[in-house]
Amino acid sequence: MKPTTYRSFVELKTLLRSDKTQTPMPSPKPAPEPVRISAAVPDNELFEQSMEDVKPLGWSNTSSPGLIPIEIPNPQESEDEGLQLLIDFVKGRVPIDVVVSGEYVEGAPDPRGRRWLESLRTGHFAVQAHLDLHGLGILDARDQFERFIRNCLWQAYGCVRIVHGRGQHSADGHPLLKEHLQKWLCSRRMSRHILAYTSARLRDGGGGALYVLLKRKTP
């Protein structure tokens, strides 16, 4: 077997230089002759002369598939339907769900009360007493609320209604009394007596009142 020989990098540099001298340089591509345009030649002939070297691809002879017609509903019919729904809403012909009003609240201080939220919201329980806190300050409202709940527990009532208002007459239109009432219902002091609460139906005050389901004392 012939032993492998290695050449130094100096010889490699010499070989590279010799290859460059032997490789022929590519001849420059001749520039196309300028097209002479005469003002007397019509435009269609100029276009044909310009397109002489163009090769057709062949796809332009195939017709494109037809478009599927799209049926656009009459916008006037949609406007008429929306207007009729608005008229029925104003006249009270359409039932309104307080849940989608943006004022609806609910809660279950006792986990067992979650099973009764739907029944409470839809008025399944008869209201046995009610308290109107509308227009009271926070301190007076809390005192009235606690005394009312204690009295209802003593009377063994199950469902009561508390009116708190929507806060429309407050300085910034914010329902502060509504927020405080939810905190009181969930407080450690009162939550042991409360199963659940939801916003009332429209006939009972809607977003301005609460149904409260109380725990009844077992004998």
- Per DSSP E runs of 2 or more residues, the count of β-strands stands at 5
Distance between the termini: 111 Å
CATH class of one domain: Alpha Beta
Helix content: 25-40%
The ordered H/E elements are HHHEHEHEHEE
Task: Give the neighbour order of strands across the main sheet.
Answer: 1-4-5-3-2
Mean pLDDT: 77
- Global outline: elongated
- What is the level-2 CATH architecture name of one domain? 2-Layer Sandwich
The class by helix and strand makeup works out as alpha+beta
- CATH topology of one domain, by name, is Ribosomal Protein S8, Chain: A, domain 1
Which segments are poorly predicted (pLDDT under 50) over 5 or more consecutive residues? none
State the helix count.
Answer: 6
Radius of gyration: 44 Å
Largest sheet, if any?
5 strands, mixed
How much of the sequence is in beta strands? Answer: 5-15%
What does this 3D model show about the protein?
This protein is of the alpha+beta class and 219 residues long. It has a domain of 108 residues: Ribosomal Protein S8, Chain: A, domain 1 (2-Layer Sandwich). The chain is built from six helices and five strands. The longest helix is centred in the middle third of the chain and has 17 residues. The chain is elongated. It starts with 8 loop residues before the first helix and ends in a 5-residue tail after the last strand. The mean pLDDT is 77.
Q: Helices and strands in order, then pairings?
A:
Layout: H1 9-22, H2 43-50, H3 75-90, E1 106-107, H4 117-121, E2 129-132, H5 138-154, E3 159-163, H6 176-185, E4 194-199, E5 209-214
Parallel strand pairs: 2-3
Antiparallel strand pairs: 1-4, 3-5, 4-5
